[in-house]
Automatic annotation (TrEMBL):
Keywords: Membrane, Transmembrane, Transmembrane helix
Residue ranges annotated for the Acyltransferase domain, each copy included: 13-369
Sample GO molecular function, one term: acyltransferase activity, transferring groups other than amino-acyl groups
Family matches, as Pfam families: Acyl_transf_3
Keyword Transmembrane helix: yes
Region (Disordered): 384-407
Transmembrane segments annotated in the record for this chain: 50-70, 82-103, 164-183, 195-212, 224-246, 253-272, 284-303, 310-331, 351-372
PANTHER family: ACETYLTRANSFERASE, BLR2367 PROTEIN
Biased composition (Basic and acidic residues): 384-399
GO cellular component assignments: membrane
Keyword Transmembrane helix: yes
A GO biological process held by the record: polysaccharide biosynthetic process
Name of the protein in its database record: Acyltransferase 3 domain-containing protein
C-alpha cells in the first residue's frame, strides 16, 4: 500500500557526501592501509592517507537517527535498523572468512588441511614458504566476528578482526540501542540533551587522557573503553548537534563550538598526542578532511540542495552508489587486499590494479545489497508488521540506516 503522506524529495547533497566518504575509506584502505599490512601491495599511482570517511559516515548516520526515530515507535525503529544492518554483515563475514582461508593459505605457501572441515577450520602444517606470509583466520575468528565482539578479544589474542572495517557495526548497534532507549524518556529535555552531547565528546577524552595512564592502564579497562565505542561517540554527538541546529534548536555559535570540539576529539582519539609521530603523514590530511566534510554536512543539513547543472546529470549514478554504500563498506577492505595480491601475482601493475579493485568492490557491494540487505530487510520487517497488526497493510519504512547508507 503506497504511503499517502507527502514525501520529501531525495536530496542529492546527502548522496554526494555518502559517496565521497565511502570512496575516501576505500581509497585509503587500498592505497595506504593495504601496504602497511601487506608490504608487497604497493605501486599505486597515489596514496590516500587521510582517515575521515568512516567517521563522517557515522556523523551522517547519527543525523538521520534523529530524523527517522521521531517518526515512529522506538522498538519498531530499532528492529528496522537491526534487520537492515545485521543480515548483510553476517553474510559478508562468512564470505570473507571462506575467501580469506583459501587465499591466505595459498599466498603463504602452506598446504591445505585435508577435508572440508580441515579447509575451514584446520591448522595448516609446516612453515610458510612466502617471505611475507598472510595471517590465516581461524574458527575462533569467525565466531568472534559473527558475534561482533572482536574488540573484546583481540588484546587477549582470543580472536582477530577478519576485516578492519567491521569495527563500525557494534559501535552503531550500541548507539542505535541507546537512542531507542533514551528517545521516549520524559526527562529528556533540550538542556539535558545538549549537556549529554557535550558529555559524549568530553568525558571519553577525560577518561583516556586524564584518568587512564597510557603505560599502566590494565588491558581490561582498555577493552571496556574501546569495546563500548567510547573513543567514537563524539561522531554521534556532532551528528545529533547538527540535526538540532538544522531544526533551529541550537544557536550558530553553539554549533560552531560543537564542530571545533568534535574536530579536536576526532584528532586526539585517532592520533593521541602520546603516540603520534611529529611528521605523521596521516594526521593533518585526516584532521583537515574531517573538518571540511563536517562543514559540508552542515551545508547539506540546513542549506539548499546541491542541484547544480553538472551534478544533476550524474545524480542517478551518485544515488545508486549511495544506495549500495553499506555493501561497499562491508566488502571492500580485506577482500580488496586479497584481490590486489592475486592481481599482483599475475603481474598486473598498480595503476591498473587500483581501478580493478574499486570496480570489484562496487560489484560486490551491489551484490550484497541487492541479494541480501534489501530482500532480507523486507522479509524481516514484513513478518514483524504482520505479527504486530495482522490483516493491516503497513507503510514501508525505506530509510537506509547503515554506515554509508543513512538517507
Amino acid at each position: 500500500m503506497p504511503d499517502a503522506s507527502p514525501r520529501t524529495p531525495r536530496k542529492i547533497s546527502w548522496d554526494v557526501l555518502r559517496v565521497v566518504a565511502v570512496f575516501a575509506v576505500m581509497l585509503g584502505h587500498v592505497t595506504h592501509q593495504g601496504a602497511l599490512l601487506h608490504p608487497e601491495l604497493v605501486g599505486y599511482p597515489f596514496r590516500v592517507t587521510a582517515q575521515f570517511g568512516a567517521a563522517i559516515l557515522l556523523v551522517i548516520s547519527a543525523f538521520f537517527v534523529c530524523a527517522s526515530l521521531r517518526k515512529g515507535r522506538p522498538g519498531r525503529w530499532l528492529w528496522n535498523r537491526v534487520a537492515r544492518l545485521v543480515p548483510a554483515y553476517l553474510v559478508a563475514v562468512i564470505v570473507t572468512y571462506v575467501v580469506a582461508r583459501y587465499a591466505t593459505i595459498r599466498f603463504s605457501g602452506l598446504p591445505f588441511p585435508p577435508g572440508l572441515s580441515g579447509f575451514l577450520f584446520g591448522v595448516p602444517q609446516g612453515p610458510p614458504t612466502d617471505p611475507s606470509p598472510w595471517y590465516v583466520p581461524t574458527g575462533a575468528d569467525l565466531l568472534g566476528n559473527l558475534g561482533m565482539v572482536q574488540e573484546w578479544g583481540w588484546r587477549y589474542e582470543l580472536f582477530y578482526y577478519l576485516d578492519g572495517a567491521y569495527w563500525t557495526l557494534p559501535v552503531q548497534l550500541i548507539a542505535f540501542t541507546a537512542a531507542a532507549l533514551l528517545w521516549p524518556r520524559r526527562w529528556r529535555t533540550h538542556r539535558l540533551t545538549v549537556a549529554l552531547l557535550w558529555a559524549l565528546i568530553l568525558v571519553p577524552l577525560f577518561l583516556r587522557f586524564v584518568v587512564f595512564d597510557p603505560v599502566s592502564t590494565p588491558k581490561l579497562v582498555e577493552t571496556f573503553y574501546y569495546g563500548l565505542g567510547l573513543h567514537r561517540v563524539h561522531v554521534f554527538a556532532i551528528g545529533i548537534a547538527i540535526w538540532l541546529w538544522a531544526k533551529r534548536r541550537l544557536a550558530n555559535w553553539h554549533l560552531a563550538l560543537f564542530v571545533l570540539a568534535a574536530c579536536a576529539a576526532q584528532d586526539l582519539q585517532v592520533f593521541p598526542f602520546h603516540q603520534a609521530l611529529p611528521n605523521d603523514p596521516e594526521r593533518w590530511p585526516s584532521a583537515i578532511g574531517f573538518a571540511i566534510m563536517l562543514l559540508l554536512v552542515c551545508l547539506a543539513a540546513r542549506g539548499p540542495d546541491w542541484r547544480f547543472p553538472g551534478l544533476v546529470r550524474v545524480a542517478p549514478a551518485v544515488t545508486w552508489l549511495a544506495g549500495i554504500s553499506y555493501g561497499l563498506y562491508l566488502v571492500h577492505q580485506e577482500l580488496g587486499y586479497i584481490l590486489a595480491r592475486a592481481l599482483l601475482n599475475v603481474g598486473v601493475p598498480g595503476w591498473l590494479r587500483l581501478p580493478i579493485v574499486l570496480a570489484a568492490a562496487v560489484l560486490g557491494g551491489w551484490a550484497i545489497t541487492a541479494g541480501v540487505e534489501r530482500p532480507v530487510h523486507r522479509w524481516l520487517t514484513a513478518r514483524r508488521d504482520r505479527r504486530d497488526k495482522p490483516g493491516k497493510p503497513q507503510v514501508k519504512d525505506s530509510e537506509p540506516v547503515s554506515v554509508g547508507g543513512a538517507s
